């Protein structure tokens, strides 16, 4: 069976977003313009230096996505509204969105299909595993720290890939907030000019 993986960029003090998040500023007071510019500058300012980490971000067989990362789901599941990711999202696989209201699946250009799941994180993961296949298809959990913390608390993450950016936010949505103590086995660590990439095996 494939693994359940989470890639997440955090500040040096563990925040994946600042306070005052909005639809227009999904990363809130992130030390930049709120669009993730400072937290995620390593992807765009020095892409060649971080090519391996960038290329593996969207290689899973299926994805689970937090509702905030998808964007607000409008009441009528408006055909003009495709979430934050445009008409051709970068995932190219089934994406199971944690949501409050069920909708029909939404196929998108490029092979992404959104499925809204209303019966919890375990159900979303089970559907993603089935979609990824019974072989070695991995599932990636997408979303900010709140979503990841739910999966960590439930013991459902196998591998945690952190991209640690050298500045502090001081306050915000923090990874490991409210999560019981975990054992982590460090698998890899690589420092780049704007970020340090660390991969951990989450010990049961």
Tell me what you see in this structure.
InterPro entries: DHFR-like_dom_sf, RibDG_C, Riboflavin_Biosynth_HTPR. Residues 4-194 form the Bacterial bifunctional deaminase-reductase C-terminal domain. One of its GO terms (biological process) is riboflavin biosynthetic process. Residues 1-37 are annotated as: Disordered. The chain is α/β, with parallel strands linked by helices. Helices cover 17% and strands 28% of the residues. The chain has 5 helices and 11 strands, in the order ββααβαβββαβαββββ. It has helices at 41-45, 51-55, 67-70, 121-132, 145-153; strands spanning 4-11, 15-17, 62-65, 94-98, 106-107, 113-117, 139-142, 159-165, 173-174, 183-191, 196-203. The strands form 2 sheets. Strands 5-6-4-3-7-1-8-11-10 form a 9-stranded mixed sheet. Strands 2-9 form a two-stranded antiparallel sheet.
Q: Care to give the gist of this entry?
A:
The chain has 204 residues and is an alpha/beta fold.
